[in-house]
Amino acid sequence: MAAELGFAPDAATVAHGRDAAPAAADVAQERVFAELRRVLASDDPVAGMGWMDRLGLVASLLPELHALHGVEQSHYHHLDVYDHTMAVLEQAVLLRADAAPAFGAARAPAVAAVLAEPLADEADRGVGLMLGALLHDVAKPQTQTDFGGGRIGFPDHDRQGAETSRDILGRLKTSERMRSHVAGLARHHLRLGFLVHQRPLDRGDVYRYLRSCGPVAVDVTVLSVADRLATRGRKADEAIGKHLELARELITDALAWHADGPPAPLVRGDELARELGRPPGPWIADALDGLGEAQYRGDVTTREQALAWARDELRPPPADG
């Protein structure tokens, strides 16, 4: 009710809530997720999550999220991991409501349309984004590493966070589609930030970003912006500016990829094997990916060019001896 209607509980209700919070872990987990979904689908998920935390429900139902309290970060951050996570959630809510300030007025309606698409478990992709905001850094406690000189990092927290997100949503009895979606957001939320340091990007860089992020390319681009906007430590304004510039470039391609998918292959795997005189094997998947990148770059546009590319780039390995 706080999240959906702006109400605030009275003191007696708060006291009862705190007393009852530990027992919430024994409630059917499908019901727990249904209530969490309502909080995240509301206009003010931050208020709802704030009450959940103060009442002890986060500790009871989402202990992995509660464990983010007090986990310090580097000087590029101004908040501990829990408060940073709530700040990311707040920014994600703003982007869900209006993406124009971040992505421009021309792209904002298309971003909003993607986030409004049904996802799974009676939730849309906007709720998926909120779950991604909550869980993207969930593996930071176990990956926190002190590199000395005030440098704190969290190596591998993206991969481990994807696994932990799956575990949490599995405990909440969500569908495989929801688990895969939110795990993808955790797994890929750092990719755009890494690409900032590689600018200017060519079409191959864009292809690899979209190919890696796959079905969450639009969503994780939005999440990365929320994450960046919530990070207000050292050199924040400079970092935010560069990140937003790249996000605006990539969102157009991500929206097109979401709408149309990757380019249709110009040749099949069996045709490549026959053309190169090689037996089928795992190499075909890599070859088709390389050919897809060449096609996305515009280096090949016809079947004949694709076969010529394959003959040139995928020559059979020399025989032993």
From TrEMBL:
This is HD domain-containing protein. InterPro entries: HD/PDEase_dom (IPR003607), HD_domain (IPR006674), PolyA_RNA-bd (IPR032828), tRNA_CCA-adding_enzyme (IPR050124). It comes from Svornostia abyssi. Belongs to the tRNA nucleotidyltransferase/poly(A) polymerase family. Pfam families: HD, PolyA_pol_RNAbd. Residues 81-232 form the HD domain. Keywords: Nucleotide-binding. It comes from the Bacteria. PROSITE patterns: HD.
